[in-house]
Amino acid sequence: MADTHLAQMFFDRARAGGSEAAYLVRQGASFTEVNWTTAAERVRAIASGVLKDLPMAAGTCVTIMANTRVEWILCDFAMLSLGLRTVPIYVSLLAPEVGYIHADTHAELLVVENREMLEKVRSARQGFNFYDKDYPGSAVKLKHIIVIDPTGLAPSDDWESLEQVESRGRAALAETQPERDRRSAAIKRSDVATYTYTSGTTGEPKGVIQTHDNMLSILENVADAQLFTDRARVGGAFLFLPLAHSFGRMVEFGGAFYTCKVMLSSIATVAEDLGLTRPGFLPAAPRVFERVYGKIMTGIASAPPIRQKLFHWAIGVGKQTIPFRQKTRPLPFALGLKFALADKLVLSKVRAKLGMDRMHALMSGSAPLPREVAEFFAGVGLVVLEAYGLTETCPGLTTNRFDNWRIGTVGPAIKGVQLRLAADGEILAKGPNVVSGYLNRPDATAEAWDSEGWFHTGDIGELDPDGHLRITDRKKDLIKTSGGKYVAPQKIEALLKTKPILSEAVVIGDNRKYCVALVTVDKEKLAAWAQRTGNPPDALGPAVQKEVQGYVDEANKGLASFESIKYFRVIDQEFSVDNGLLTASFKVKRKAVSQRYKDLIDSMYTNQKAD
Q1: What is the C-alpha to C-alpha distance for residues 367 and 390, in angstroms, rounded to an integer?
Q2: Among 139, 174, 472, 516, which is disulfide-ready with 604 (CB 3.0 to 4.6 Å)?
Q3: Can you give the pLDDT at residue 403?
């Protein structure tokens, strides 16, 4: 029988899971288990505490602003069980952005992690300016604030601790049970569960209206892809992605749906935590896989020659097996023997060092994964299954599968999803997990959904004969040179940013005679390169310029003349969320980069003679 709503799903799985681990939480140098029974008891206590003293009608919005942690998940399910609508907020957002989301949703309750995040909300309540529009303090309609970790906070009437809410709720469980049961029974699968805001790479962020049905449908249909097998459940799912991101939220709900334990980590401790937990399922953005690949290759470059030779031989053998493994065909006898030897001597040790010796599935989403990185992981014996989706699709549309994967594609459509390509190559989608629109944005809704109900993704793609989708670029990111040629920048950027000392690349050329690039240098890789080559670790120095020129020349060999990079500039600053050049989900803000480095970009078109 299908689940009625997300909270009912959680409680049903908790009853089945009992004393088994539901979540693994980092405490000091190790992880502590929170079992399903304990998790369910805490969810009921939080819901009871909210209902007892913070009365809110069903459908009222509750914002959650915290790092990925067990309390985030428990509060989410507690609010959903009362028919409230949860609204995740990235912790990296500035006070005006936080204020805007509260004003847009009319949220009455906020769950916030700590003093620092509480101060952002307090600032917004004094009034704020967002997208050149002034909002008075009254736009933030918060009535209550719950603080998960109140360390350093002075007692105040404007907040109470989560511990206080739980304590009150446990004492009132019997009293509140009839109303909690009534509210849960009244929730329909078609009801709105959450508003998840887009990252705003192309303008003002939009609140995506996601129902219980949208979320449950994607979980039910992804089950067909066999990502959560018994092997994945034994290892568990590793979650460090922000829960304000739809990819991370899907893992949160997926842990309960598949009764799979979830290890809760952070971006700062990923490497260490993987070694401690040895999970079975790891979803991540390409940037994470790129960094792992970069660190391994940097380390091997400084190893003794014999070790380097053995490593590259083993990886080469692993890569030879890819065409057979993609089609689940047995390896030829001789290759099978070589692969077994390579695995014993090198590959198994690499997996163990990464904490991936029990890994069943690696999944990459939210941006293209460079082929070089995908082939490396596959060579090591770790297949990275590229998937594709958007916040508006909760967030899946396609995924590669173990019995049907192709490097360079994002796989075939997930069960229940319909795809088609528009005349210009834009990917259109329908399915039960595809939402119906944006909160308070009828104009944006009408632009994204056509009269036949097809959602226009804004991505350009192509389908191969086997139904695998290949993303070629963002429709709005396509560059049109002044000569009328269309250029897909992401393809070129992928060629550059995996080079030994580079961390990011942005291609520019819209309405210009030719394409140029801005690149950033990874400081850690640069230091290792400098030590290995004897050159100074100066990102703007002549040695680095010569090295990067070599990368550009290599990339240009595989590009048409009109899309090749004529000039480049190295930026001695990495892009980050804090400096405003990456979104909270680590996507490059092209407009912000172009504006900040306008003079540098213009210098590549002034008094230059391109071929």
Answers
A1: 10
A2: 516
A3: 85
